[in-house]
Amino acid sequence: MKALRLCLVFIVICGLIYPLATTGVAQVLFPKQANGSLIKKDEKIVGSKWIGQNFSSANYFHGRVSSIKNDASASGSLNLAASNPALKKRVEASIAQLMKDNSTMDRTNIPADLVTNSGSGLDPDISVASAKLQVARVAKANHLEAATVSKLVADYTASRSLGIFGEPRVNVLHLNLALSKLHD
């Protein structure tokens, strides 16, 4: 009987009080982050800062490949080895699609992040090199000068986290929203 009471006490503390307390503190101290860092356009939610999206139109920058279709409820990746024929086939298909979509792209300088998954399959960012390789296509599709689109890429390039971690990167959703503002 003592064990049952102790179990119930821990269920209430760990399963109810602690989650409610941490949620309350998060809502007060970090409301934007606690609610998913949602991005709105015209008061409508269009995505999250942390979840990649699939942009297939020539008018927009394309993000990373996602084996889970950027579904946040299924975070993960196929984790295929470099020697796996299925990975090679998928990468070759991605390269072929990139070459088709970006006629000025040279096959020898395609950044790996344009043809490979991130570990989570949800990465919203691409490398600066990946964004720059798409400038000509996006500029042409939107009837803009390449210099205008290049400046947009530069303006939306985030530096290393805390100045030392990771690489400079571009959030594809933020970049595409800024691109769409040029037409508004």
Question: Can you tell me about this structure?
Answer:
The chain is mainly alpha-helical and 184 residues long. 45% of the residues lie in helices and 9% in strands. The chain is built from six helices and five strands. It has a three-stranded antiparallel beta sheet with strand order 3-5-4. A two-stranded antiparallel sheet has the order 1-2. A hairpin with a 2-residue loop joins strand 1 (38-41) and strand 2. Helix 4 runs antiparallel to helix 5 (146-155). The protein is globular and about 75 Å long. It starts with a helix and ends with a helix. The mean pLDDT is 90.
Mean pLDDT: 90
The geometry reads as: globular
Number of helical runs? 6
**What percent of residues adopt helix (DSSP H or I)?**
40-55%
Strand content: 5-15%
Reading the helices and strands in chain order gives HHEEHEHHEEH
> Sheet with the most strands?
3 strands, antiparallel
Task: Tell how many strands the DSSP assignment holds.
Answer: 5
* Contiguous runs where pLDDT drops below 50 for at least 5 residues: none
Ends distance? 68 Å
Instruction: Identify the strand order in the major beta sheet.
Output: 3-5-4
Radius of gyration, in angstroms, nearest whole number:
21 Å
Helix/strand structural class: mainly alpha
